[in-house]
Structure formats: structure tokens, C-alpha cells
Specification:
- With 87 residues, this protein is of the alpha+beta class.
- The protein has one domain.
- Helices cover 38% and strands 32% of the residues.
- Strand 3 and strand 4 form a beta hairpin.
- The termini are far apart.
Length: 87
């Protein structure tokens, strides 16, 4: 009969390492699902996240794409840059 305790400890360490390495992906995935389901903002809305402002172009599970405004251009004109906001 083999000793399975060392095998279980090894799997536990590997699982903890994977969970630690993939925690940002998990957070972005859950955040994307919450944004899509709750309708917090929709495509076409003008939003500000941190210090970035823009019009929502696309909402994905892992990121949101914005057309930047007020970047290096004065006023509410689009700068032409696309911003990918994670989470």
C-alpha cells in the first residue's frame, strides 16, 4: 500500500501556486461577468475609470475597451487612442 499523504500535499501545493498565479485572471473574469450581468455601464456610455475617460466601445469578460477622450486633445474630443481596462 502506498503512502498518499505526500501526493496530497504535493497536489495542495500545486493548487495553491496555481490559485496565487491566476488570481488576477479570476478577478477580471468575475468583474467582467458582474459588469455584463448588472448593466453597470453599456456600450456607448461615457465613463471615467481612475484618471482615464472615454466612450465604451466594447465590454468583454476580461476587459473593457474605451475610445479615450480628454487625453492630449482639449475638450471632449476623442484622442483616437483605444484603452483596454482590465477587470
Amino acid at each position: 500500500m502506498t503512502d498518499t499523504s505526500s501526493l496530497l500535499v504535493s497536489y495542495g501545493i500545486i493548487g495553491a501556486g496555481l490559485a496565487f498565479a491566476l488570481q488576477d485572471v479570476f478577478k477580471n473574469f468575475v468583474g467582467g461577468i458582474l459588469i455584463i450581468v448588472s448593466g453597470y455601464y453599456r456600450v456607448g456610455d461615457r465613463i471615467t475609470i481612475d484618471d482615464k475617460s472615454g466612450d465604451v466601445m466594447d465590454i468583454g469578460i476580461l476587459n473593457t475597451t474605451l475610445m479615450e477622450i480628454r487625453g492630449w486633445v482639449g475638450g471632449d474630443q476623442p484622442s483616437g487612442r483605444l484603452l483596454m481596462i482590465m477587470g
